[in-house]
Amino acid sequence: MKSYRAKELDEQLIYKLLSGSIVPRPIAWLTTQNEEGLVNVAPFSFFNVASANPPLLSVAFTGEKDSYLNLRTTKEAVVHLINSDNVVLMNQTAAKLAANESEAEKFALDLEPSQIVNVPSLVKSRVRFETQLYQDISLGREGHLVLLEVVSLSFTDEVIDTEKFYIDIEALGPIARLAGNDYAKLGESFKIERPH
Q1: Closest listed residue to residue 135, CA positions, set 46, 47, 72, 48
Q2: How many CB atoms lie within 10 A of CB 53?
Q3: SS3 letters for the chain?
Q4: How crowded is residue 139: how many other Cβ atoms within 10 Å of its Cβ?
Q5: What is the block-wise mean pLDDT of the chain (196 residues), using blocks of 10 residues?
Q6: Can you give the pTM of this predicted structure?
């Protein structure tokens, strides 16, 4: 094995090795808004579920991005999951825009009111989680690990069995982040029984 001491690598190399090997990663497509109501839309792949009780999602930010600043101010965000219907639109929103520009307006993304939070939701999403800021943990010089408490969960009809509360993974059609410009669709799945 080739081994590297983290302290001897710069930030860019560490990012490259982590993001290239910890794959596939789910993508959080966040909507946030500032105090004036300007909606920011941005993707984050350092994201996952953190807890079911309380229901928490984790999102890591590098730097003082608009999404992070909005979240810190309003304490609300909506996390949308990515599928083949919205992956191209999601990628467009990764573009760097000025703080006074809205990705929703620039890329003609349809928004609708959320169930609980004030931040609007993206129409083009099969799953969305409305969240409120639970905890903001400072990481190093400019990083932040944010825990978001889920206050509402929304699914399109084809994704959820409302009697058994099963998620139809084929209908969900998740897209995962790899490294660089690479993404992945759900491939072959298999079962392994857990030991009792």
Answers
A1: 72
A2: 5
A3: CCCCCHHHCCHHHHHHHHHHHCCCECCEEEEEECCCCCEEEEEECCEEEEEECCEEEEEEEECCCHHHHHHHHHCEEEEECCECCCHHHHHHCCCCCCCCCCHHHHCCCCEECCCCCCCCEECCCCEEEEEEEEEEEEECCCEEEEEEEEEEEEECCCCEECCCCEECHHHHCEEEECCCCCEEECCCCCCCCCCC
A4: 11
A5: 89 88 92 95 96 96 90 97 95 91 94 97 96 95 94 95 91 93 90 91
A6: 0.92
